[in-house]
Structures are given as C-alpha cells and as structure tokens.
C-alpha cells in the first residue's frame, strides 16, 4: 500500500481527512482553490465516493456550494480572519472546526 508492505492481519486506519490531499494527484492539495478544473476534481476526488457507491447528489452539491461561495463573495468581497483558527479535534480529519471571519463592509 503506497510502497509499504502491510503484513497480513494488520490493522490500518483510514484517514478520511487526507483522502483528497495527495500531492501525487493534486497540485497544491492543501490550498482551497474554487477555480480548480472541475473535471480534474471529479475524476480524482474521493469526497463523494466512487464506482457503484458514487453519490447521486454530487453534481447538485457541487453546484450549491459554488453558488453560495460566489454569491457571498459578490455581495461582501472582503473579509478578514479575526480570531485564530480552531482545528478539528479529531486525528482523522484535517481542517478547521471553527473559522472566524469578519466581513468588511463600507
């Protein structure tokens, strides 16, 4: 697995938080980039499962988040972080549990 021999009957832990952060598959995997090529993301992403277990709602979910982010940025394009990020308290997830932003309005 990944160039490492895993002995029979070994226990392994699936780290879901790292599933889409493989630098062999994604350029700048830890950077949020809403402009990434959608076809590439869909082809390589594990977020919505795969094969016969692929989520039927994946296209709708992608469209919804795109609309929400684009509309929020259109209405209030400037913001800043006003408190330190709070990471997830679980070892199996990567990212922020809380992200405090202040929208800069004139």
Q: What's the number of extended β-strand segments? A: 4
Percentage beta strand: 5-15%
Give the proportion of residues in helices. Answer: 10-25%
Structural class: alpha+beta
Overall pLDDT: 81
Following the backbone from N to C, one meets helices and strands in this order, namely HHEEEE
List the uncertain runs: none
Shape: extended
Please report the distance between the alpha carbons of the first and last residues.
Answer: 53 Å
Quick one: biggest sheet?
2 strands, antiparallel
Mind explaining what this structure looks like?
The protein has 106 residues and is an alpha+beta fold. It is built from 2 helices and 4 strands; from the N terminus they run ααββββ.
Topology overview:
Layout lengths: L37 H7 L13 H18 L3 E3 L4 E2 L8 E3 L2 E3 L3
Antiparallel strand pairs: 1-4, 2-3
Quick structural summary:
With 106 residues, the chain is of the alpha+beta class. The chain has a domain of 30 residues. A two-stranded antiparallel sheet has the order 1-4.
Keywords:
two-stranded antiparallel ribbon, two-stranded antiparallel sheet
């Amino acid at each position: 697995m990944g160039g490492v021999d895993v002995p029979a009957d070994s226990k392994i832990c699936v780290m879901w938080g790292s599933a889409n952060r493989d630098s062999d598959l994604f350029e700048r995997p830890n950077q949020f980039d809403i402009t990434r090529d959608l076809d590439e993301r869909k082809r390589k992403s594990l977020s919505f499962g795969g094969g016969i277990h692929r989520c039927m709602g994946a296209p709708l979910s992608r469209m919804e988040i795109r609309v929400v982010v684009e509309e929020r940025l259109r209405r209030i394009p400037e913001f800043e972080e006003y408190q330190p990020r709070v990471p997830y308290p679980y070892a199996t997830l990567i990212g922020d549990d809380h992200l405090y932003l202040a929208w800069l309005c004139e």
